[in-house]
Structure formats: structure tokens, C-alpha cells
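$ fold --in a.seq
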Amino acid sequence: MPKTRVLYIDDDDALARLVQKKLGRLGFVVEHASSPEQALTRLEEGGFDVLALDHYLGAGTGLEFLARLATRGAGPPAVYVTGSSEMSVAVAALKAGASDFVPKTIGDDFIALLASALDQAVAKARLVAEKEAAEAQVRAARDRAELLLAEVNHRVANSLAMVSALVNLQANVLTDKGAKDALAETQARIFAIASVHKRLYTSGSVGIVELDGYLGGLLENLGGSMRGQGHGANLISDLAPLTLGIDATINLGVIVTELVTNAFKYAYPDKSGDVRVLLREDSPGRALLTVEDDGVGNAGKVIKGTGLGTRIIKAMARSIDADVVYHARDPGTAVVLSFALPQ
């Protein structure tokens, strides 16, 4: 095992020779610097594991030397040696960056205490360096994982965009209105899922989606699509800045797509009107999403369409442990979804 190299800084040459001799017997390699300037020169040359410095250094104090060291960046740990009986000196040295302090005495216990403090300072510095290296490795691994996840989200979003384009091409060659509408709804569901992955890789977020931004983009696309199909409702949104996990956001996006699509298709059969999407925090840890209209309502009426949208809403709500309640308004309908937010 290599010997510990010590730079001993003290203007007392006689004591320094004694320290060199006695620490040398204990396995240390000690070099003496009699002034702060000489010490700084030797530290620049490097090769030391630890330094020990006296409080009184002739032209200054060890505290002043520690302050100069602090401006030079990382260096070997320091053990402060002081003959002062005032604890304030030792406390000041520790605050200035010293790893430990040893009271200077004329007895043999001084060398033993100094040797122990030097060993502990080196060990502590080694542990700190190993900890910093391990943390750097963890950060690098995390960055690689985030980069990989962003690439995965990018590829998934691109793949889903391609699927959506194929569905659109298929819809364009159909003449049956029912089939075209069914493919348009499928395309909207695909967009709801793809938008989550797109937001993740463009925002740099990992695992958390900002719902106001995501739902805002989803509703803008959905409104344009529905108007392109001849539905004239006006889409209004008021979205609180809440966040949700990836899987829950996908389910929520599909639910919103189904509810808004139904409102566009059935709320205003012979006129235009508003469809409102509201998102707010209901209580700590829970949120409310409301989709409402001022249309004809559905109280006591048979559900229109195939009922697939209703089944999708129920399945998605179960998967995120959400409650869905339909309210009859006068006029219109409100659907309220209560779901948990991440803690």
C-alpha cells in the first residue's frame, strides 16, 4: 500500500523536523514548507494526499492560508494544528474548510493525534471522491436512460402517426358514411395516444405529462377534425396546470376524445353550440374533468351509435380508478370524471 504523502506547513523548523521524523516512523512521507508561498508552490506541483498546517505562520495565519486555498479549487484535505487554547480558532478552521484540527502539545500524544487525524482526513477525502464518482455515474446512467426513453417515445409517436395516416388513406377510398365515421373516430383515438408520446420527447419530461398542454393540443386537433366532418360546435376549454403519469394520461386522453366526439355528434343535431372541457383540482390529490354542452341532452334516451365509445370510456376509467358521472343539465349534458393525481 503506498505511503501517505503529507505537506507539513509550519514556520518552526525544529518542530517540523521532529514531526517529519516521528511521522516517518509511522509510515508517512512528510515534506516541510516553512511559509505559505512555499506551500502553495509545492501544492501546485502536486503529489500530496493531505496537508497539515500550523495556526501561526509568521507572515500570516493558517486561516488566511485556508482562505487562499479555497479560491484555488479542489485540493488535498487539511488538518489544522493550533497551540491556541481558544476553541474559536478550531471552529473557524473547520468553517474555513479544514477536515480536522489537532491541539499542538509537547507530549507524544500530539504525534499520535496528528497521525490519526491525517489518516482520517485521507480516508474521508477518498470516500467523498468515491461518492462523487458514483453520483456522476448515476447521473450519466440516468441521462442515457432519459435519452433512450425520449428516442422510444419519438419512435412510438412516429409509428402511431404512420398508422393514423394509413387509417386516413383507407377512409378516403370508402363511400359508406358509417364506415368513414368509424375510421375517423379510430384516427382520433390514435392521435390521443400518439400525442402523449410526442409531448414526452419534445418536452424532455420523463414519466410526467403536463395535462393543460397535452389536452389543449388534443382538443385543438379534435375540434378541427370534427368541424372538418361537418359538425359545427364551438369547443371551449379551461384547463388547470396539473400533471399526470404516462399511462393515466393516455387513458384520460382517450376518454376526453370519446366524450368530446359524442358531444360534437349528438348534442346539437340541428344547430351550433358550445362544448366545454374543464379541468381543475377538486381536493388534494384528486382532479375533476368535466365535458359539458347546452344541447338536447340524453336523459332517458337510448344511447346513439354502436355503444363502443361508452364501453371504451368505462374501460379506461376503470384502468385509472376514476369515477364517471353523467348529469342532466337544463339544457344539455355534463359528464364529470373524478381521478387521482400523482402524490
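$ fold --in b.seq
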Amino acid sequence: MLDYLIVGQGIAGSVLSWQLLKAGKRILVINNKDTNQASQVAAGIYNPITGRNLVKSWLADELFPTLLRFYKELESILSVNFLHPKPIFRPFINDEERALWEAKVSDDGYKVFCLDSREAYKKWHGFDHDGGFFIQQAGYVDVPLFLAATRTYLQAKGCYIEADFDYSKLDLSRGYVEYQGLQPTKIIFCEGAQATQNPFFSYLPFLLVKGELLTIKPAKPLDIIYNRSVFILPKSKDQALVGATYNWDDLTLTPTKEARHVLEAKMHKLLRIPYQILSQQAGIRPATFDRRPLIGLHPEYPQLGIFNGLGSKGVSLAPYLAAEFVQYLLYSKELPVEVRLDRIR
């Protein structure tokens, strides 16, 4: 007996698979790894404080303790290191931002995520700025490594099939789900951008966005994440990622000269040391009209569900929201109103 058939093994499908396994459920994942382009090229940064007004990310107080526990537990199970806690350094843009940050540091609701500004980082490692501030409980997940380790684990447990999902083979006519001889209790679609082609969920208001990254080789090693209009993420002693762009019109997977020029122009305002561009990657993020995920069961076919729309914050949103979705599936606990499908009119 199969409890859940999960379609897609990007960040959403992988995290949901782990949460269902943890709940003792029998799962099978169907995935074509070549279609998970956004997850495969994702930088995987998690950052609790964002935006011009330096506000906490939505659900930050729940998300960040959960994600740290979740990924650390999986590292232990898989004997693979893909979680990399690192402070994020954000240069001050002006005196007003400096004053705003000093106020945040003294705010009880922000203290857990804040470190005092450090003038010692002025001109540090070739970065050009007039001081700045540090954000803690931040870092990145090596997403390709996490996905590969999860796939290997699922394969070893007989819970993974490498294949395209054929919607035409899905039979709901007898009141239960049947797909190519399988009869799961439910099918959960975690397809990322492919959801726009899903005949059952294409009505949802996805707002797909193309993102591009550069891989660079800086002349000096970097050891923390920098964020000021672009991020510069050290991945190894001699490589770093620079990103990202947002393009709602060109939804091809072809890297563009325009995106490269935009990233380099922004990087030049921050980085003052030589570097070499090694490669450029593109992916399509499954964003939504209101920047909130789309989670729940189909209004007409409750045997079908969706866990999608995590956008650029998949590594931080997925652990907490997947756990919430499992509670909903198993015990009918209400989902957060911001992610429910019935908000779509």
C-alpha cells in the first residue's frame, strides 16, 4: 500500500518526502531530474532579515530554528555536509540605514538575528563600503548536494523512480487514485515551474521568474556572504556565486549577456578585487502573485495536492511548511491562511 506519490524532487519534493517519511508514511517519488532547473542552480541562501526596511522574513521566528534542526538532522542521517551557517554582511548604504540597523539591534524581536555593526570590515578583503552590519542565523544549503544525497537515499529505499509524470495516465474516475498500476492515497505535485503545465493546478496564479547566477573565481578567498543589491556567496576557497537577476519576460533557460552585465555592474559597486567568471547559470523560479507558497488539496479532487510556489526562499520555507502540510494531511490541522489554495478567487 502506497500512501503518497510525490511528483518532483526539487527542494519542495525532497523536503516533503523527508517530512512524510518521518511521519511513518510510505512514499514513492517520481522525478525527472533534468526538469528541476531552479533547484539545481539555486544558491540556497537563507536570510532572516531582508529588504530596504530591514524587516524580518515572513515567519522568520518559526522558519529559521526549524530549518537548522531539519538540515542538521538530515546531515546526520545521510553523512553528508550540505548546511553551511555563515553570517551575512550587508554594507551600509547611508547614515539612515546605519541608524535603522542600530535600532533593530536593540529590538527584542530582532536581537536573535542581529550582530552589531563592525567598522573593522571597512575595505576588508577588497570590498568597498563604509562599514556595515552582520545578520546571524543565516547561511546557505548546498542544494545540488542535498538533492543528490536525498535521491541516493530514496533510491536505496526503493522510493524513487526516474521518469516523467504522464498526466494522461492518471485515473480518478473510480473515486480513488490510480496511476500506471499504483494506487496511492494521494498524489502531491511538487513540480516547480512545471506546475503551469499541470492540467489540475494550472489555474493557480503562478508568476514564473527567470534567475541567473555567475560563478566567479576571486583573486582572494572570501569567507562570509555579502549582500548589497547582489549577493556574493563563497562556495569554496577559490569560487563564489554572484546573483541573482529577476526576469518575468524571458522564461528560457538560456543564460544572457544582459543578465551578466547587470550582475557585473552591481558586483563592481561592492567588490574591488580582480575576479574571473567561470560560468553562468539560469533557472526558472516558481514564484506566485503574492509571494506566498501554494499548498493544499485540489478543490474538486482531494486525492491530489500541491506543495509549490516557494520562489527564491525554498530552503528556508520548505522545512517548516512541509511539516505544517503533513499535519494538515494526517490530522486536518489548518494550514497558515497565507498559503491556502482557497485564498485564490
